[in-house]
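fyi for ur records
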Amino acid sequence: MYTKYSIEEIKEKLKSCLSEERYWHSIGTMEMAVELAKRFNCDEEKAQIAGLLHDCAKCLPNEELKKYIDTFEECEKISPKTWHAPVGAVMAEQDWGVTDKEILSAIRLHTIGKKGMSDFEKIIFLADKIEHRTRDEKFREKIEKTLNKTNNLDKALLKSFKITIKSLLKRKLPICFQTVDVYNDLLDCCK
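which gave:
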């Protein structure tokens, strides 16, 4: 058992702390995480939990998230848009009783990634981007097309990072150096 709550208990508790759209995004991420876990031979129960809880801190105000900033890596401090990921990992452990380090790591990394992610961490990262309930169809289809054509998590991740970095540049938003490192690493391994 990876948490002190059942999947149904987690769903019920999430309904009270997330917006309706964020709740359905979490359900969609869970569904996609399980689908990808089956496809790439990873633990489906862990994928369910990580998918559900990946955004458990998303609806907290920035002032609340900022209370955790001392626990962040330097690059995680760059953008308030990504603060929910490291805070979510802390909350998953403290509030939800998650004990599995890979689940906690996948929650923490689902926004900026890192070099050398495990297949499980890649699955949660991608599930967040390509779930079918709330994600933009054009964005999602580009990544899914790559994943289905290559059956390669790294190539799908590279596609996701290309789209995300391009979007961040277009909107003149900061880009974490760790994200750039992941992108460069993926370029090398996907040649």
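The chain has a mean pLDDT of 96. thats all i got for now
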